[in-house]
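Predict the assembly for these two chains.
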Amino acid sequence: MIRWFNSARHALRTPYVVLGAILIAALAYLVVMPFWEVLATSFQAQRTDLRRIPGAEVGSFTLYYWERMLNSPLTERSFVQPLWNTLTISALYTILAMAIGVGLAWLTARTDMAFRRAIPDLILVPYVIPSWGIALAWITLFRSDTMPGHPAGVLQAFTGITVPTWVVFGPFPIIIVLAINYFAFTYLLAASAFSSIDASMEDAGRLHGASRWRILRRITLPIALPALGSAFILTFSQGLGTFGVPAFLGMPDRYFVLATSLFFNINTNRIGDAFVLALFIIGLASITIYINTLILGRRRQFTTISGKGVRPLLTSLGRWRVPMGVATIGFLLLIAVVPLIVLVMQTLTWRVGNFSLEHFTFHFWFGREMVGAQFQDRLAGIFYNPEIMRASWNSIRLGVIVGLVVALLGQLAGYVISRGRGGWISRILEQLTFLPFVIPSVVFGAIYLTLFAQPRGPIPALYGTFALLVVVSVVKRLPFAARSGTSSMMQVSGELEEAARMHRAGFVRILTRILFPLTRNGIFVGFIFGFVNTVKDLALVILLVTPLTNVLPALTYSYTERGFRQYSDAVTVLIVIIVLVGTFLARRVSRTDFSRGF
Amino acid sequence: MRNRIVTLLVLVLAAMLPLALAQTESLDDWMQRAEVGPYQPEVEDWDRIYELAKEEGKVIVYSATPLILDAAAGFMERYPGIEVEAFDVRALDMLEKVRREYEAGIYNADVINVGSPEIIRTSLEEIGAVVNYVPREMMEFIPEAFREPYLYQRMNAIGWAYNPDQHDAPPFTNWWALTEPEWQGRIVHDSPSRSFSTLQFAIAVVQHADEFAAAYERYFGAPIELTTENAGYEYLKRLLANSVIGSGGSTGMAQAVTDSTGLFTALVVYSLYGQTVEGGQYRFEYNRDMDPAMGLAWGENQLLVTRSAHPNAAKLMTRFMLDEGYFAHFSRNPSPRTDVEPVPPYEKLGEMNWWTVDLDFAIDNGSEILDFWLIYQ
């Protein structure tokens, strides 16, 4: 008894135990409980469905929603097809993204291609454009007036070339756009895999007279395979909940994925149906993550630095050295610049689809409100439009706050995880901080929508408040920040803390004077990652914003829905500008080279 | 260390306490204070209401039309001292957000302006979130059907439109024509899972199943053979096999007809018809002799959100939008008032062949019809 009491007393004096307990409690409330809530709600009768469930009261047990989704005339269109579409799209875009990403990684890490050192920086450039922004640009570029109900796009206006409808809407463009969005992700994972390969094995192959191709096929790839497999799975898992791209490109073709099906169910107040779908998305994502841990075995992180200093012998591309380099750089610039040009062009046209000079206008940027004019041009240009200005301020505010909070929380979680290594607090916290990665954004939004719609105990209802957006964004960004926090805290030896404690420094003082300064780089990477992804994120907030708390991505979605295409494109460009300026400022302030931090 | 954390926790909890304990005013007390519902006086003193509204200082309006931004500017000019925050939100989104805000105890909106009576009934009125408010002096000008159960601020309709530059005569006169092969891919409409007017439209089709059965016989010369419950559902099923889901909301549909070439039709709302005049943005026309009907007429409701902070400003706004504000900013839509003549090209809706909304039918069948649509779309 006394021993137990003493050890408890000791634990309470150990900062990481106390801190860990607080973080675990908070995450249990913010991540685990919502999950149970969703599960329970999917079995409870909703107010709006009482007419259709005989004898039910609000909240009484029912299998109605599960039956509707899994065994009713609705099943095929609302569940089976979206499920199948989700899996096909995720698989195909992942294959494409892997082909580009792994190819680029191999070219930059293992060959003598010209300009290869510029690739790691350049590859992040397309990343500033939100994936749904690329989708909007895709539509603007390729649509044509041969498709009923659509005006001419840039391609048709300038070249007269028209493409078939399946190029513009449906699975094909969704796969291409997602691949463009995610190949940087596969590149980063694959590049670290390639650089971790001990080059002496390849040397051994070469000494035995193996050809370059044979070495690649028999040695390099097999060694890199687990890491590549893991990259495949992680990329695939990101597609399961993807919302924006299929919402813009799939809907006109009546092509639904689980996430869009879920969204429209929530939108028409069919919470029960939506939650059954949400559980399936979470289930699928969990399975893929489980497969990932199987592939990686017990290794939880890639070994990026090996003990030996053997430099890999670079494969010579011969006379293709320069052309390949130029082609690669050209490709990266193309996918970064073309979407932006296309979007900007549309914002400068008075009528959608008419790109002639007499329809050129700056109205959608600098125009004043025109009372009494036609519908879409009566709104003021984005710099004078109170709705857009409010949303911009909300977006910037949200990005900065979330960036800061998530960066610091990530370090704190990293501190607990690294100091408590091997203990159960560390293990639980590591799992909990990873959990939001498995729950796709749109599902997260749907869950928080219902979870915080009403007061719960001491927590007031948060729906309609800015705080809710902050909370959901912080939780969603935590997995990355906690990973980055763990790896930077691992590098700080515990001796420093002990020395400080000897001098009677308190924990807060140790944090602010020793730990945070030393892990500064990690904090800034966490900030920028949190900022960029929060400012761009549509799926997470689309269900949670209200007119007063609107943010730019949600505004783009509503402008597109209402046919105000110039405004939606202008707002997308504005988001890219905010992301670029924010990133630039953060780099200036911190002098951090964040391309290496990923 | 431990002390600091404990202190911090205590502070956080203490800060939350007032929020948790805050007692909200009862609905009845609010109505009494706002003088609405059963407490609306027989004669309303508008000078006093304006004074009270100035004290409130502000009014927040959610509306499903961008015209609300004009109306807001006009209101602020007419009634200095009251700031208007107006938001143009799509109907389904708005109703969902108002309900959730209300359930969360956040009473942001003071007035909503949206045409979705059955959703207003099932998701807002049942939780007490809205109250129907008709300024006393307007009662005599608005027929009861247009002010009960919910006030119509302006009228609207939805029907098949074609481009008169492409067709000398309407390209079809019977709805069943659209189920023929030559219309494949040449029909555009929105989806009821994001457009309320499209849902209303689908409900009206099913409700008038008998008329569809008769129209079928007139068109094909033989009685319809059903594969679904009735001729209304049957029509939706065959229509969906031929049509395309358009984007861009109601303006997107109007633009699509305007830009169309050859055989083409789209479901377009009547409120955009005013912009088909000379120099207007759109070019479309309705067939007035359509069999079985031109489409569906309904109204855009105006309701007060209960427990809101600015009820008097909301009342003033409502009167403004039925009267001066209507003439200045909404005259492109017919008024529910009997003393107001429609501005050309608009005509009196009652004199055209539109169906009207049956609220009870919509409430009882709306969900099944949406299900049906989702299955066949």
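The domain at 362-598 of chain A is CATH 1.10.3720.10 (MetI-like fold). Chain A touches chain B through 67 residues (CB under 8 Å).
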